[in-house]
Specification:
248 residues; 41% helix; 7-stranded parallel beta sheet; Rossmann fold; alpha/beta
């Protein structure tokens, strides 16, 4: 039986990823932080940890090591899905608050994936694969989310470094999502504005990311690859989008 670890698997995309691999007959090790909406399943093992805390991540690493060792299990897949997305503007004016804001993003997107990869290095199965969920903002940053963008770029860079480090044993690839799934609090005006900045111009849904993950898990010739799943948003003419309806 194959085994996959998914971080941030308690809700949204992570939950759908976990349910997909359960449906394929895999054993799923599901990390979550505060909310775990996954239904109980005989092949589902859940692990709680706050990835913004180094101590909590170290505890998670110990739990995973103990479980893998006790069950004589190797990892066939890992998806770095957990994410922290907080606008810089809500932080306030205190420098200490900004320090905590930056550190939280860096811990979740860079520190935790790095420590997990180190902790699990003895447990990779033959032809194992890792997928890191980055963001198109890694290459085209948004000033309103500087800490988020920088830390997601760090995750992407880390994944490519791991592809080099684990060459010949584990394949490591990156997915850059674009406008995939809107949240209930997003207004219709906001949705249309975002979709106008893509070429497909429709909400892609979590299925688009699941399809990409499955492809990268199975594509034996791909490692060190960055795949954009963004409906063409990256190549949209951003100059036109910025200055539309403005006169010179």
């Amino acid at each position: 039986m194959k085994t996959i670890l998914i971080t941030g698997a308690g809700r949204r995309l992570g939950k759908d990823l976990a349910e997909y691999w359960l449906a394929q007959g895999w054993r799923v090790l599901a990390h979550y932080n505060t909310a775990n909406e996954l239904a109980s399943h005989e092949r589902l093992m859940s692990f709680q940890a706050d990835l913004s805390s180094a101590d909590s991540v170290l505890g998670l690493c110990e739990q995973l090591n103990d479980w893998l060792r006790a069950n004589v299990t190797q990892l066939d897949g890992l998806v770095h899905n957990a994410s922290c997305f907080v606008p810089d503007a809500v932080v306030g004016d205190r420098l200490r608050d900004h320090a905590e804001h930056v550190q939280k993003h860096l811990h979740v997107h860079v520190g935790a994936p790095y420590l997990l990869m180190e902790a699990l290095k003895e447990y990779w199965a033959n032809q194992a694969a890792v997928v890191a969920i980055s963001d198109i903002y890694s290459d085209i940053p948004n000033q309103r989310f500087a800490a988020y963008c920088a830390s997601k770029a760090g995750l992407q860079n880390l994944a490519l470094s791991q592809a080099q480090r684990l060459a010949g044993k584990v394949r490591v690839n990156v997915i850059q999502p674009g406008p995939v799934k809107f949240l209930p609090e997003h207004s219709e005006a906001y949705r249309q504005q975002v979709l106008s900045q893509s070429l497909i111009r429709e909400e892609l849904g979590y299925e688009a990311i699941i399809d990409a993950c499955v492809y990268l898990m199975n594509a034996r010739a791909l490692t060190g690859t960055v795949m954009r799943v963004d409906g063409g948003r990256f190549v949209t003419n951003r100059y036109d989008q910025t200055f539309v309806n403005q006169t010179s």
